[in-house]
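pasting for the record
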Amino acid sequence: MVAVINTGYSVRSILSYNENKVKEGVAECIGEGNYPAPAESLNQAMKLGRLLHQNALNGNVKRNSVHISLNFHPSENYSTEKLLRIAGAYMEKIGFGEQPYLVYRHDDAGHPHIHLVSIKVWHDGSRIDMQNIGKNQSEKARKEIEKEFRLVPAQGRVMEEIPFVKPAWAGRVLYGRSESKKAMSGVLNAVLLHYKYSSLSELNAVLQLYNIRADRGSEDSRIFKTGGLVYHILDKDGKATGVPIKASDFAMKPTLAFLERRYALNSSEKVFEKNRIRSAVDGALLRRDMDLEKLVSQLHKEGIDVVLRKSAGGQVYGITYVDHLAKCVLNGSALGKNYSAKGMLERCGTTTKAAEVSGDGIVPQTASQEPKETALESTLESASDGISVKVLEELFKPEWQGDYVAGKFKARRRKSRRKGAADRN
């Protein structure tokens, strides 16, 4: 069993995420803890009200929601009753036994898993300290539960033996090699429900890696005006081939309305994902002779695909990062200027070309002679092969300086003389 603990600022969002999975038919609320009625008798408002009411006892706790997933080996297929017993034992062992919580079984992945939704405020209004809970209480609870319920142990198993911790990858769809609709359906199930995307262009950045594109048609087309959506298979040149399939023809119904609901769910701030991509890019650029092609290859090894948007003339005008480990899609501009298409071309600039954004595209122009690298840059570049980005950040982090000033350097304060004191003397 593998336990993953996350906290958030909105219990409403976490509950909505699980309830939307229920509406999509890929999850079920199978139980509850410390609620006045059984789960099957509760509607969404009742489930949320219980959590919000207790959270309101302490308004100072900003990050007040808890979202836990308990993941089991693909060979384990337990009954609802056993899953509830495991959930109850886990919550008890990590100190949440008296907290209100909900249990959801999810069927949208290649392995059995349940989600637990709870809060960080006690019934007396005090705050629950979750510092190092994953390393301490959760890890101890996991080992005890694996023995108690005879689960497949997570510790000691290599990554290849646990498919659910690897990035989802359904394989590229090749037109004519297999039944189109079945192959596309497998990809859509792997991508639409697992990756965080907030626009059609971000979604297509992932789908095109699998040779698929979602298409609304041109603005004057009938499909666009009626809010329709079709999915194309792409050939090796990225062009649509074969007959497109309407979104409504797939079993999961990945229509435009479905995608818009996913956009709303994925719209939260992606701080961790942004930092991971920035660190990976910065670390790769510390190496010598790093051009854009080498950067793309290096990031791919770290589970991040770089999708370049090009004009008809082959000029790069946009860049999107697809992180298969964090399952997140981000445009370069969302990460900052240095990670946009222009910024990356400049940072990876060759001695013969530079890039300048103009209108819709990036127009190449002859670059002026590049400045000589400084001694510090040369040292960093030569040392980068053996030093991680985190180590370098620590080495060049500014020292903290207090406000202490030695007495002999302090200006002497002149005593103020009261009016009339000189006359009395």
